[in-house]
Amino acid sequence: MEEQEGKVKSKKDWSKEVTLKSNALVLEEGVFTWQNPKHIAYSLKRSAEESENRKAAPFQSAMSMLNFYINRAGENLNSKQRKILEQAKKELRIVFEKNKN
């Protein structure tokens, strides 16, 4: 992608901007680097429930942001952190009481 007036110059930069400056959810700093999946889930839940800018239900907003980060981090996300974030998805379902059996 070429740099255009006022626009981000690459997909990588664009996704970083969304993660850092999303106005849908105000995330705690470093939330996706934490080592405890439950803490990640509770933080995302809090952020989603407190947001006045989200366009979807809190659960959907929180899960979307988590999936967005996992997908955009891609091969740069080490396997240990990917496993933690995948577990955070399960924990998010639990904290929102949306268990899938």
Instruction: Give unreliable regions as ranges.
Output: none
Q: What summary fits the major beta sheet?
A: none
Oligomer: single chain
Please report the distance between the alpha carbons of the first and last residues.
42 Å
Task: Identify the overall geometry.
Answer: globular
Query: Which class best fits the helix and strand makeup?
Result: mainly alpha
Number of helices: 4
- Which percent bin holds the helix content? 55-70%
Mean pLDDT: 82
Order of helices and strands: HHHH
Rg measurement, Å: 14 Å
Number of strands: 0
Share in β-strands: under 5%
Walkthrough of the structure:
By secondary structure, the chain is mainly alpha-helical. The chain has a domain of 65 residues. Helix content is 57%, strand content 0%. It has 4 helices and no strands. The longest helix is centred in the C-terminal third of the chain and has 17 residues. The termini are far apart. The model has no long low-confidence stretch (mean pLDDT 82).
Write the layout of secondary structure elements.
Layout lengths: L10 H11 L15 H14 L7 H16 L5 H17 L6
Helix pairs in contact: 1-3, 2-3, 2-4, 3-4
Characteristics of this structure?
101 residues, mainly alpha, 4 helices
